[in-house]
Q: What sequence folds into this?
């Protein structure tokens, strides 16, 4: 395995620990969506084990890496009646159930009862996950950097949302605005992960919770799938992939306490395996495809997901090395506001 003693290959220090000593982890990575041409590598930080993309993209180029349809949405899942019907079925049978499961898990770990609590979802996409929290009494808001997604959330779901990036998050909300800030599978897209965590900490009230959905490069999925792993082939949109240890350290450094890492649902974890084995089953292809081959590929991806369920259950609960997980971190109470 080739090594470097500095950060000349990646071009910057590790986003999670600040280290600059790397070894090559994966090479000849291509965008699984075929949207961005080129090849990339992931290099492992020797200090915390996290993976960094090389060459590291310019922040100004990141927005151009995303197709118009990137996250799942029922209303934008194709033009034909068959596509829309299948999208509604897929939402009811898979996505809605997973969003509900994530909301239940968040409430169980944080103890938030929902009613009267303010929630912000950073990187909300089409906003479907926000509905699961709204049904539990949260006052919800969304944020995303794609104008089309924000407009959909505001007009179709009638949920307040702002269009900005993680760097300018604090310009839209005053400190201490939220009881709960979530961000599902966005951190790996951000060129300054530490800044995002610090911004979220500022937006939380004392005692509030941050919940991050994150892929883990120290998972069994990453080890066995290698450069076929869907989280890796999201390059160059994924600019880093942390380890569990790195996420705990990052949250603690930002001032959080009681940091806990739990696996996401086995269906979500198995979905990553399905996309790894059948890259053509991604939502982006389903939106643009009109042939039976497109539907067949989507079905194969669903089949691969189903077959991966037993392995993901063992990965999550026996070996505790999930491919994707939820990081819970609580902001300490301000004792000056609660004198004895």
A:
């Amino acid at each position: 395995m080739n090594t470097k003693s500095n950060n000349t290959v990646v071009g910057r220090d590790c986003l999670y620990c600040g280290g600059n000593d790397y070894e090559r982890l994966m090479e000849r990575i291509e965008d699984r969506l075929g949207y961005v041409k080129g090849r990339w590598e992931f290099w492992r930080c020797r200090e915390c084990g996290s993976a960094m993309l090389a060459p590291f993209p310019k922040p100004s180029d990141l927005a151009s890496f995303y197709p118009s349809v990137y996250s799942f949405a029922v209303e934008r899942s194709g033009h034909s009646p068959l596509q829309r019907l299948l999208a509604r079925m897929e939402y009811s049978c898979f996505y809605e159930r997973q969003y509900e499961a994530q909301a239940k898990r968040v409430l169980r770990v944080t103890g938030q009862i929902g009613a009267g609590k303010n929630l912000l979802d950073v990187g909300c996409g089409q906003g479907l996950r926000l509905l699961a929290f709204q049904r539990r009494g949260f006052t919800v808001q969304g944020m995303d950097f794609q104008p089309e997604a924000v407009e959909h959330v505001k007009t179709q779901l009638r949920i307040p949302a702002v269009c900005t990036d993680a760097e300018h998050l604090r310009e839209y909300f005053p400190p201490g605005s939220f009881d709960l800030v979530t961000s599902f599978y966005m951190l790996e897209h951000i060129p300054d992960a530490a800044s995002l965590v610090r911004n979220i900490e500022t937006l939380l009230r004392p005692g509030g919770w941050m919940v991050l959905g994150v892929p883990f490069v120290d998972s069994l999925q990453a080890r066995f799938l290698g450069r076929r792993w869907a989280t890796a082939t999201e390059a160059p949109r994924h600019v880093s992939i942390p380890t569990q240890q790195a996420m705990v350290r990052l949250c603690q450094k930002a001032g959080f306490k009681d940091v806990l890492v739990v696996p996401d649902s086995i269906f979500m974890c198995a979905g990553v395996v399905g996309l790894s084995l059948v890259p053509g089953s991604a939502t982006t292809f389903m939106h643009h495809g009109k042939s039976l081959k497109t539907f067949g590929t989507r079905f194969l991806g669903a089949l691969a997901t189903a077959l991966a369920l037993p392995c993901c259950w063992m990965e999550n609960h026996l070996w505790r090395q999930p491919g994707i997980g939820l990081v819970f971190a609580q902001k300490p109470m301000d004792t000056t506001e609660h004198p004895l």
Observations:
- The longest strand covers residues 204-215.
- The domain at 3-331 is CATH 3.40.50.150 (Rossmann fold).
- The radius of gyration is 19 Å.
